[in-house]
């Protein structure tokens, strides 16, 4: 199904940079489409549930926060699988690459079942911990419990997508994600209004869609594995290797989540205007992250494949070229984000104070986006190289560097526009600079360039 010839890395040392650019874009553009398609689930749920009432929408906000956190912490299932599959494929072991992908999917299924049960059982506690009560809490618990059965599907989608990315197939996940977004929209309307299930129907519709997406991706990977002669049964050793490879990436993800939570906490302390403005800036920042993440995904697959093939010169050349793409894309996006901020911010709010705060902070964030492009790509490079342990330590180190700056903003920055600008100078400036320094120093050395399987 996937042959080494189909995904062979074009070495920049022997070919034009234009050929390498085509290889990068062939992976990054479909990956971007899949990344954008996934958030549509939340948007559709919000639009459908929002017409049920304020309490239902507030409950959905809390429940989706819990779900996004649970699934977000498991993103290592995609990252670890991508690098492992790409490395084996680069070494010429197509069957082994697919076996690694299958093992990762078994781990995702087992973990998904455990988390589904835990989420269902702990839903009242989790919602209560977020401060909800009354009707809002009831609706949040309802949504969580009806959507919990979809967690195995959500994690299977992560692992299967990681396997396909490692095989340098980003088009299949795009097609499944786009189709899933459409199916989810139809199911939500039918179950919420047609069947009359209310917010429970929204949770069930999302769960059914995720399970269906997982089934389609599983069929694709299993067919490829059987065609290549790989064993589709779970292998204890293979699953355990995924656990060991994924644990450092989980630590890295936790450090990022803690930095984001700390930023929200500081924004809350700066007053209602700053918090509302932060929501706008954070939403725009999240959109820019999709574009830069797509380049990181391409870097993961290409670097893993090159190292698996033992191509060190090609690896260095790919590093340089993907970094050029990352910095260039960050600069271009930064110009749009900062330059057009006065035009699009009014779409989010009519409050002039919130507008002023959001525009100012967006300009601050826009200046840092070329650096963010560098960070995102280097993150993808090191993940593709399987350098998870370093990323885990670096993640905790950058969090330690950022925390005092965030706390200083909380203690001394004024409320409103100035405070929000200082907060984003700390997050997009100091935090991202710390990540750029730690990953950049690592990339300059050779310890991460471990070749072969």
UniProtKB/TrEMBL annotation:
Topology in the lipid bilayer: Multi-pass membrane protein
Keyword vocabulary terms for this entry: Cell membrane, Membrane, Transmembrane, Transmembrane helix, Transport
Single GO cellular component term: plasma membrane
Pfam families recorded: MatE (PF01554)
Superkingdom of this protein's organism: Bacteria
Record keyword Transmembrane helix present: yes
Protein name according to UniProt: MATE family efflux transporter
Lineage: Bacteria, Bacillati, Actinomycetota, Actinomycetes, Micrococcales
């Amino acid at each position: 199904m996937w042959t080494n010839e189909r995904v062979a890395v074009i070495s920049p040392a022997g070919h034009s940079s234009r050929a390498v650019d085509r290889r990068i874009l062939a992976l990054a553009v479909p990956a971007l489409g899949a990344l954008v398609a996934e958030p549509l689930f939340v948007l559709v749920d919000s639009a459908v549930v929002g017409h049920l009432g304020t309490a239902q929408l507030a409950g959905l906000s809390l429940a989706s926060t819990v779900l996004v956190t649970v699934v977000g912490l498991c993103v290592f299932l995609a990252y670890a699988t991508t690098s492992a599959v790409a490395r084996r494929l680069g070494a010429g072991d197509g069957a082994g690459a697919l076996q690694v992908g299958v093992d990762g999917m078994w781990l995702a299924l087992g973990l998904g079942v455990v988390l589904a049960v835990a989420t269902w059982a702990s839903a009242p506690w989790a919602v209560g911990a977020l401060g909800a009560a009354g009707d809002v809490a009831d609706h949040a618990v309802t949504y969580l419990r009806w959507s919990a059965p979809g967690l195995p599907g959500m994690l299977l989608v992560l692992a299967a997508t990681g396997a396909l990315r490692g095989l340098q197939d980003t088009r299949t996940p795009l097609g499944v994600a786009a189709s899933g977004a459409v199916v989810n929209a139809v199911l939500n309307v039918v179950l919420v209004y047609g069947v009359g299930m209310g917010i429970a129907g929204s949770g069930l519709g999302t769960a059914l869609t995720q399970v269906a997406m997982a089934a389609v991706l599983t069929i694709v990977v299993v067919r490829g594995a059987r065609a290549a002669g790989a064993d589709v049964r779970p292998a204890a050793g293979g699953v355990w290797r995924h656990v060991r490879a994924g644990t450092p990436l989980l630590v890295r993800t936790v450090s990022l989540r803690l930095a984001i939570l700390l930023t929200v906490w500081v924004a809350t302390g700066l007053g209602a205007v700053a918090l509302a403005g932060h929501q706008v800036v954070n939403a725009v920042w999240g959109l820019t992250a999709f574009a830069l993440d797509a380049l990181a995904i391409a870097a993961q697959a290409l670097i893993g494949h090159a190292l698996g093939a033992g191509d060190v010169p090609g690896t260095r050349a790919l590093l340089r070229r993907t970094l050029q793409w990352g910095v260039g894309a960050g600069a271009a996006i930064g110009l749009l984000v900062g330059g057009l901020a006065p035009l699009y911010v009014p779409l989010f709010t009519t409050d002039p104070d919130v507008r002023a705060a959001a525009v100012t902070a967006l300009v601050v964030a826009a200046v840092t986006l070329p650096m963010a492009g560098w960070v995102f790509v280097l993150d993808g490079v090191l993940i593709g190289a399987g350098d998870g342990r370093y990323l885990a330590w670096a993640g905790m180190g950058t969090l330690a560097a950022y925390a005092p700056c965030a706390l200083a903003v909380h203690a001394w920055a004024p409320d409103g526009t100035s405070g929000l600008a200082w907060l984003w100078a700390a997050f997009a400036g100091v935090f991202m600079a710390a990540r750029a320094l730690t990953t950049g120093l690592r990339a300059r050395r050779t310890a991460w360039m471990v070749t072969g399987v």
